[in-house]
Design goal:
710 residues, alpha/beta, Rossmann fold, 15 strands
């Protein structure tokens, strides 16, 4: 081990200026225009796909092309150095990566932080600031992976830093891979083995393990699998394997190599034009674009002008490939922040607007390349000094982290959320507030109430838009995530009561907890809550957009909930609610309701469906934060809001005799326009769920319409 440490120390300090200049000449001589062309294809795929162009549904595979190319180039550089010089200067490798990547990324993050502060509503500053800090440290992919499985974050707007997930994975590989090769070099020196063979074997192990994990996790949790490093390492390792095998590929017959290289190009283009996000990814399917990229890398030199280089070596393609890193950095912040600016956050951008914004992002990308990226990576101050290069790296990372924390720190302090008049006290008694708020101001006839009038300004808003995201019902213990199937139960109200009411469904059922809890306390029930993310209590096949596959866990949870609801300890009443599920046939939803609800009615259990809420059509807190003096801009027509909610619920209730419906639509949208603020209370905490405060304010009306439970 002592020898290993000494070897690492020598590797970290090795390399003269003369040697570095010789390596730069070698790198220039080894330049491959076909690789630059692959970069151009990859970045154009990503940009066009992000712009929303429908004819390139698989443009996201451009990132996978980048991964394979990066693994190929990094392994080529490191292995060549090891073979030719008998050692690897890890510090010099890190210095080259720092000069190449960090100045441009730091500038992008700094500009994004400033633009976030100037353009986006302050409701988004905290999350974006933390994203910037995580991106600066090249860890944002793990943050996004955690957010992907958080049901409370499902309806949040995309972060302008979200695209840094792939850069984070590459940077983590750049840190890990040279250290592993140094370790392998130490082993080879002690055992006398072949550097190529040992490194190749190590890459095979990494690739096989990562691919197996990618296949498993993509099936189990596709959203998380998309972002985490462990499911993507095999793609970088594949590029490394090609790099190590290049001496063999150089010997291929020219026409055979040309055929393989063209097949590779066809494979990349085919996945871009044919693959869709409906297919779980990465998993096995990612083998197509990655293997295709590997073919181009492997066969390109032997194919010569008969290969794809014939079309990839033209000046426009080479320019795009050379600017691909900067274009990737800048396009997404311009698209997200620019899109918000031109729409005022009141609608989605059109495809044409998306294309224009992506095209405009080329300007800051080119300026960044010309005045920041190229000058710094070529400056002798850094090229001839590993120490200066590493100092540059730490400075850039530090600036990015500080910028992110500053964006987070300037978020206005959110006032405490208002507690409406129907909150159970410690003695489970209802305490009336002096001043009605929220739906309480509408009285019993909301459609004629003057309090329902749509206005531009109100004296105060509770919860504040900044606090709305945290104004949630207490569902932490009983809300299952996407992969859990064993029901968890929360108890509210009079927990010793002989009368038990169960609230069951997805997060749209969970949003009624505050009102149901107050009713339960008032009537002396025990309220039991069991909910699961994006899973209704219906006998239907649900496809999970989050998991990107059939939602088998939802069916399994339904079975277990059915066993509880019809078992020996069955509740006296079951309250159901759920959001919108697109099965392609509303009759499936109705028959699914009959299959689940019918047995409950047959056994004598009261079944009550609380009709789903109108759909506000946008993130309400973001809109209110941006348009606090023009709240009418955040309203949505009642007809549109009702049309976007589930249209089968009423028919399902009619199809199962004995099931009753409670409909509080008029107290959530009491006019021709659904107001974002009613009675001084923010109605929605995102673009689909009510705030807990507004839910509580619906208690009097829910209590009046709720059937008696024996």
């Amino acid at each position: 081990m002592t020898s290993l440490i000494r070897g690492l120390d020598r590797a970290l300090s090795s390399g003269s200026s003369r040697k570095r200049r010789r390596k730069r000449k070698e790198d220039k001589a080894a330049f491959r225009p076909d690789i630059e062309g692959l970069r151009a294809i990859a970045v154009l795929f990503v940009l066009i796909w992000h712009a929303g162009v429908s004819w390139l549904p698989g443009g996201f595979v451009g990132v996978d092309v980048f991964f394979v190319v990066s693994g190929f180039l990094m392994t080529t550089i490191l292995h060549r150095e090891h073979v030719r010089y008998g050692r690897i200067s890890v510090a010099e490798f890190y210095g080259r990566r720092a000069r190449r990547l960090i100045p441009a990324s730091t500038l992008t993050l700094l500009a994004t932080g400033l633009a976030t502060f100037l353009v986006l509503p302050d409701t988004r500053w905290r999350d974006i600031g933390l994203d910037i800090a995580a991106a600066g440290g090249y860890l944002v992919n793990w943050r996004l992976a955690d957010r992907a499985v958080d049901y409370l974050a499902q309806d949040t707007a995309p972060s302008p830093i979200q695209h840094f997930w792939s850069l984070s994975i590459e940077e983590q590989f750049y840190i890990f891979w040279p250290l592993l090769i140094v370790l392998l070099a130490w082993v080879i020196k002690r055992t006398g083995g072949s550097a190529t063979a040992v490194t190749f074997a190590a890459l095979v192990i990494i690739a096989a393990g990562s691919l197996a994990w990618s296949v498993y996790l993509t099936d189990a949790d596709a959203s998380r699998a998309y972002f985490v490093t462990t499911t993507r390492l095999w793609e970088l390792a594949l590029g490394g394997l090609v790099a190590l095998a290049m001496p063999l590929f150089h010997k291929m017959p020219k026409m055979s190599a040309a055929a393989l290289a063209w097949i590779g190009v066809a494979g990349i283009l085919g996945t871009g034009f044919l693959l869709t996000t409906a297919v779980p990814f990465p998993g096995f399917i990612a083998l197509i674009p990655t293997a295709a990229t590997a073919l181009v890398l492997a066969a390109g030199p032997a194919a010569g002008n008969a290969g794809p280089v014939r079309i990839l070596a033209n000046k426009p393609t080479q320019w795009i490939g050379g600017c691909s890193y900067s274009m990737y950095l800048w396009h997404w912040p311009v698209l997200v922040i620019g899109g918000y600016w031109i729409t005022d956050g009141l609608r989605e951008i059109s495809v044409i607007e998306g294309v224009v914004l992506v095209a405009l992002s080329v300007l800051p990308a080119w300026l960044s390349l010309k005045f920041v990226e190229d000058p710094i990576r070529r400056a002798e101050t850094f090229v001839d000094s590993v120490k200066n290069s590493m100092a540059l790296a730490f400075l850039g990372i530090g600036i990015s982290v500080v910028v992110g924390l500053l964006v987070t720190a300037v978020v206005p302090r959110a006032p405490d959320a208002y507690q409406s008049s129907y909150v159970p006290s410690q003695s489970d008694e209802v305490v009336a507030a002096d001043q009605p708020m929220g739906a309480e101001v509408l009285g019993d006839d909301p459609l004629t109430s003057t309090a329902a009038a749509l206005v531009d300004k109100v004296p105060s808003i509770t919860p504040s838009p900044q606090a709305a995201n945290a104004d949630n019902p207490d569902v932490n213990d009983c809300q299952l995530n996407y992969t859990q199937v064993i029901p968890k139960f929360c108890e509210y109200g009079d927990k010793e009561s002989d009368i038990e009411v169960a609230l069951v469904g997805d997060s749209h059922a969970g949003q009624w907890i505050p009102a149901m809890e107050a009713v339960a306390a008032e009537r002396g029930w025990k309220l039991v809550v069991a909910t699961k993310s994006a899973c209704p209590y219906l006998d239907i096949a649900v496809f999970s957009d989050n998991l990107n596959r059939p939602y088998d866990e939802c069916r399994a949870w339904n079975e277990q909930m059915g066993a509880y609801l019809t078992g020996p300890g069955k509740p006296d009443a079951v309250v159901l609610s759920y959001g919108v599920y697109n099965t392609g046939d509303r009759n499936l939803l109705i028959s699914g309701a009959q299959a689940r609800w019918g047995p409950l009615v047959a056994q004598g259990t009261k079944v009550i469906v609380i009709r789903d809420t109108p759909a506000p059509g946008r993130n309400v807190p973001d809109c209110v934060a941006e348009h606090g003096d023009r709240l009418t801009a955040c309203a949505r027509s009642r007809d549109e809001a009702l049309a976007k909610r589930d249209q089968s619920q009423a028919a399902a209730v009619e199809a199962v005799p004995g099931v009753q419906m409670v409909d509080l639509t008029d107290w959530i949208c009491p006019g021709s326009q659904c107001s974002p603020v009613i009675g001084g209370v923010l109605v929605f905490r995102d673009n689909t769920h009510m705030t807990a405060t507004y839910s509580r304010s619906l208690t009097p009306q829910l209590a009046k319409r709720f059937p008696s439970v024996p």
